[in-house]
């Protein structure tokens, strides 16, 4: 175990720096579908290795903290004198011997980092090479490239004018950076040699002062791409001959060191560990071991007794020491450091934090972190990001709801003139704050609802009063508001008002559940709740509350069976085989429009969509519920299904609503035709087509209940064929000689005799299995499989439909009236010879 660094504070200070990690795009996820880990978190985890760095020529990392908005704050050992300041203020740092010593010390630190697993710093420059009071070099900021995953976790390039050419190119073009590469140690060798070259070959200013040789990034890249030389030192001397004399004054070993370290090809440069044995460093010894030393417990966590500092007279002259470094004896003589400066840096920083110190506040106080007020710009288009969020989240989003409330407030003030706009915007979602008013607008409520409601006798006893009194205490009593006595009174008045004002209808159990959503949303406006209830029943439950509603219910259930068989024949066949028919579970769904099944919070979302569509969408909601439970139902027996629907499991109601709309769009309009549908219900009434193509009124209830597949009108077949050519598979079951007299375009002739079951008289063209396989192949990707024949052979056409459904072919429907409906419409064509 290497353990944490416990270097003594001594004459050092603690320096803080900060940077921002790059942020991921909103709502972005990884390949596993989970949100991406913030880059600041990745950096924080990776940086923990830096705490273990302990070497005389490397500044210790004391703290790495994560702040708000992907900010990271780094606290590190710091000295007020860097290499450039020492070069300017101390003559000895301008000599070859001293600079070679500094270079050797830095090289030891690089070798230590390489052995620790930090292959490259990419951040070496004079300001990051600090000089301690005794003239020893210490690298600062060497962990930035490592902790940011080679710079991929930040949006700024890591490097400077002393960086190697390959580092500069990778910073400008990140796509050229090797994938997963940890950096090349020879890049740091380049930076160190370039710093040495700039200091050992200074230029003279007009005032007589020396300045380091300036070598721009552009010059380095230009020479790397076009120079005839292998190394930068030779290229610069060739470009500036006046430097040749100074360069030749260096020892031969130093010249060789610079040329080898500044080679343009990174693979030709020596590594730091190779350079330790270079002749230029002959006579210099290692300050400390370059191998990270494992330390046993407790030395790996507890600081060892500090070594004595060298005498003060060995310090650099006029070195900028911290103010609290010196202590005085009783004679007033400076005796060196004491107190907290004898403790480790991490201990001192911890105690400083306990005393209330915060690195981020210090950076703010010194102007390194500046909070600027946000600049708000009015968007030219609506924000679409929030619309992509789930509905339950959008309903909790303050800003999103603020804009939706304002929008619907304005639209409702212009009702009924803006009803079409209300409908259009409600397709996105309905703000809960205005849900009651929006529902009333969608239902077309208008006029003096208060006077109408006031004129209804809600006091005189009726024969239904007893049943109402029994039902109300069981209606959505989990809700605090609806369980209150005042709510029960309002329930009673609303139900009595509806019964009295509709003498042709009766009270059925479930009417109380239908009333609950409207009362909840309009608790203080009974008149509006009554008007909404009346309009809702008229549109979505037409004739359901007749005294004898068996025909209405049976037709509704038959249509539901047709819908399930159309979209999911496998599930339909399984439920039919175990005897689990809709009469056992679906009647409460339809009679209460699901208010008896789901809590109010989910009913609101179901009805938000239901009110925007025809009454037939209610059938699709039931089909979507079965689709949601499909995998369970296919494995369940009859008893299992009974138990499942006796206590409806939790389902994703938003997904169910979405699926129901999709099913409604994918279902031909005529397939949902009902005799008892409200007059305003959408029907297939193409005006330019003749009557027989639209007329479905001749279908009897007995036929609907006995047939597995629903019937499609001729008008729907023509409309789908013209709008989406090739989207239908038309199966003509007539004999071939009748098929040749005329059929629909691209129809497939499969005579009914070919579909006869095993045991019947065989066919010359093959058995039913072969025809079924062909039908399955042809039905792939079709919006509907339309089976048609003649009226005389209607039983044969039904048999074909049944076989297709039992075989699992989806979207099978029966053409109402057979081929005969097209005889006078001009849609039949004579197939080409050989067509089948």
UniProtKB/TrEMBL annotation:
Domain Protein kinase, first and last residues per copy: 1-281
Domain Rhodanese intervals: 724-831
SMART domains cross-referenced by the UniProt entry: S_TKc, TBC
Assigned keywords, A-Z: GTPase activation
Domain Rab-GAP TBC: 429-614
Region forming the signal peptide: none
Gene Ontology terms for molecular function: ATP binding; GTPase activator activity; protein kinase activity
Alphabetical list of PANTHER family matching this protein: TBC DOMAIN-CONTAINING PROTEIN KINASE-LIKE PROTEIN, TBC1 DOMAIN FAMILY MEMBER GTPASE-ACTIVATING PROTEIN
The name this protein goes by in its record: TBC domain-containing protein kinase-like protein
Source species of the chain: Hyalella azteca (Amphipod)
